[in-house]
Amino acid sequence: MKLCDFCNQPDPRPAWLYATGAFTVMLTPTVGAISDSSWLACGDCRRLIDADDREGLAQRYAAHSKVPLSVDRLTVLAAEMQGHFFKHRLPKAPTLIEIL
Ligand SMILES: [Zn+2]
């Protein structure tokens, strides 16, 4: 199963791949998460990304999250993580892919 990297919707259709450079995000001072070369987006998240609606994108994550934190906290965390995407996104149009 694949998940939208922005809102965690399972097996999104349509699914779009946004190219990014590889980067590491430090989750704690000693634990990092590596992002490889692309982020997967569902159609709804693609519309928000292409409109540069970063607040709407973070709110969408918070609205769909099952993490037991407040919506406000989830929105802040999503905006921070998604900010790395916008920082490392390559200037290329997304690629439509088929989720089998
Ligand atoms: Zn999504």
Can you describe what's shown?
It is a single chain. By secondary structure, the protein is of the alpha+beta class. The protein has one domain (15-97). It is 37% helix and 21% strand. The protein contains three helices and five strands. It has helices at residues 43-50, 54-64, 71-88; strands spanning 15-19, 23-26, 32-35, 38-42, 95-97. The chain has a three-stranded antiparallel β-sheet with strand order 4-1-5. Helix 2 packs across helix 3 (71-88). It is globular. The mean pLDDT is 93. The site of zinc ion has 8 residues, from strand 4 and helix 1.
The average pLDDT is 93
Globular, elongated, flat, extended or rod-shaped: what is the shape? globular
Low-confidence stretches: none
Following the backbone from N to C, one meets helices and strands in this order, namely EEEEHHHE
* Strand line-up in the sheet with most strands: 4-1-5
Beta content: 15-25%
Helix content: 25-40%
Give the helices and strands, then pairings.
Layout: E1 15-19, E2 23-26, E3 32-35, E4 38-42, H1 43-50, H2 54-64, H3 71-88, E5 95-97
Antiparallel strand pairs: 1-4, 1-5, 2-3
Helix pairs in contact: 2-3
This protein binds zinc ion.
Task: List the main descriptive attributes of the protein structure presented here.
binds zinc ion; 3 helices; alpha+beta; 100 residues; two-stranded antiparallel ribbon
